[in-house]
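#struct-help
A.M.: can someone run this one for me? Single chain, 340 residues.
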Amino acid sequence: MIRRLGRTSEQDGWASVGGMAELHDLTALEQGAAVAAGEVSSAEFVEHYLERIDRLDGPDGVGAFVTVTAEQARERALAGRAAPGDGPLRGVPTAIKDLNLTAGVRTTFGSAAYDDFVPEVSDGVVLSMEAAGLVSLGKTATPEFGSPCYTEPDGRPPSVTPWDRTRTAGGSSGGAAAAVAAGLVPVAQGSDGGGSIRIPASCCGLVGFKPSRGRISGSPMYGDPVGLATAGPIARTVRDAAALLDVLAELRDLRDAAPSDIADEWQQVVGRLEALQRALDDAGVDPADYDRDDPPEGLDPADRTAIDAAARELVRPETAQSMASVETQARDVCQTPLYL
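D.P.: on it. Structure tokens below:
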């Protein structure tokens, strides 16, 4: 399937900036611009890439995808026509690493032990991508629990570089890198603790970027106990990688990703914290300087009463139990042992 982008006055039809181009030759930002201009629909891009996945990522393919969500992608592409917002990647196909929770979509963490696991919630990374209007085509391969620097999921083909299929695509984001390099998606999300984006990007001739820790939210809870791992972009160009980084770094709230029962409890805890903060703000007191036994000089008695009441609320056993319950339930929701 060949389309040409950008109307010209000299000829009736379409022309690309650099001449004729396959849709998958366009960068992610060029695809987003084409969707925004109405030159090519998100549904057309989705169908184009699904055909390529079916043709190039079978049993003898590059080992990019472990789960393809064709129908969900088609529905999302069509629904996106009426969706608000004008982000530069709206309507652009992408893929999600199989370490990230995706509501209603099988998430195996690269392990046969989780072959039938279907999360009820999506994590913050997935929610940010959805909010930006990106359309996921499925889950990309990762080694078991994202641990090794090669990608050979249990019982599935290994991820290989499309430039030489006798060689590995690296890991643990090997499936994502193989997908981008083979033109199965223009840009994909990976995660990196000890090289799991950078190694596959190097193996596949791509741009891979590991952001600083804390740049991208790991909500509702992050599975990496030592805090080294973070999500990041894999792309063919620096500009595409930067655009996806902007999407991934969009701050998400735990309440967006948590089931309603966790969200309700979290809201109560947040409410107590906010009440204390308001009391301190109203009194013009820095929380770091406030000592209940030795309050700042000149503090109005009424302000002190309000602050003390809020502080007492925070140390009530019920509050502590709520906070512990939220943490325990959130950890149960995000069962990933590692995010590498």
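A.M.: thanks! The beta strands are 2-3, 21-22, 65-68, 93-97, 135-140, 187-192, 207-208, 230-235.
D.P.: also worth noting: Residues 1-18, 254-258, 329-340 have pLDDT under 50 and may be disordered.
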